[in-house]
Design goal:
alpha+beta; elongated
Length: about 475
Amino acid sequence: MASFGLIAAYCAFPADLRWLPFLLASFAAIPAVAVGLRRSPVGTRQPWWLLLTAVGCLNAANLAWAWSTYLASTPVRYDVASAGLYALGYLFLLGDAVLIVLRRGRRDLGGVIDAAITLLALGGLLWDVVFLPFHQAANVPPTEQVFLFIDVFVMMGILGALLRVALVSRRIIAVWLLVAGLATCLVANVITVYAADPVTNALPDWTNVPFLLAYVCLGSAALHPTAVMISEPGPEPADDLTPGRLIFLGLMMALIPVVGGGRALLGLPVDGVLIAVGSAVLVPLVMLRVGRLSAQRRRAEQELLRLATVDTLTGLPNRAACLERLTTELATFPGRQAVLFCDLDGFKPVNDRLGHAAGDALLVAVAARLRGAVRENDLVSRFGGDEFVVVCHADDPRAAVDAVCERIREVVRQPIDVAGEQVRVGLSVGVAFAGPLATTDDLINRADLAMYEAKQSKALGRLSLAHA
């Protein structure tokens, strides 16, 4: 409220003393941001440190402006030192926005990039249509044009990124206040273009009011209770690679050069620096966006493939993956395979007595033990229910199977801790060896029949083995 009072007092002060309430109102943002920094948890204060540095640079620029405009023995219309400090302050604001985006919007980085691309392109359009014609007509020095160009372009990028974060995190009022502060500052820069005297380029004092409102918004953002939530990860909205989105990104990327080329054809002034810098910034952002969407699609396809070939409970290859692997091996190295069809003995009593969660834990434990009992190039798969299939590949499959079965026998003897109890299960194993003309179905069926033969001699906590 005190800052709003200073803004009201600014308009009531004599013209030659208005720099005083202006500085008081703008400097009030520094302790406000410092308070917000202290309130933030340790480890999440980096954005507030950057905002504090940015506000400090902007206020240093205000001091330089007040000195050169009101207090110096020879006032000047434009001061390079203050313009440089303003540009530096906006760059720190950009760093602050980047940190907020990386923390609050890291689950929505694609949407943030889209928003930044859009606002940067619109910023280039704003510069070409609003600022450049005025500067050309008023013969504004090139140095001043460069600093203002940096201010506008950087602010548009910041505004786009933060606006996306604010739209996704609607209840974080502190982010909305930051957006309001930046938007007000941008509007203030546009106002200065239209309000400047066409001959002297002097500005009426009321044009400073929007800048003061921007400082109030930045300080209020730091003091708002939701400021502590800025560094927390936000929600993850849908981010699909659609034709409409690709077309939109392409249009935004082409906006600056197309508008510049159109103005050149009409004989209007064109800013070559804008086209060069705008393209140098927008093209990499669009390529990064397309690359992220493409990588996201690949990850989704890989996940679908994984889900189609992996048993979600045990992490072992599922039935489909097992049959595909066996078919491939039989076609490539016929006669070198052995299939072990394994079925748990005593699983149902454990599942009925201790519950399905305990039964799942038992299956996971058995899967881990089987995986540890086979050789590195052997395949262990969950075929369904409490059935597992092991595919061994070796020049001498019988010798390999003997060694694997011996290791399986050792792990079956050990009790398994399930739901706080020590339980024992048996394992019935049917073994089938591939001949030169063996097929996948034939091999699996023979191993399955051998497994049922082994069950006839089952004993809990033992390995029952039969060969086809």
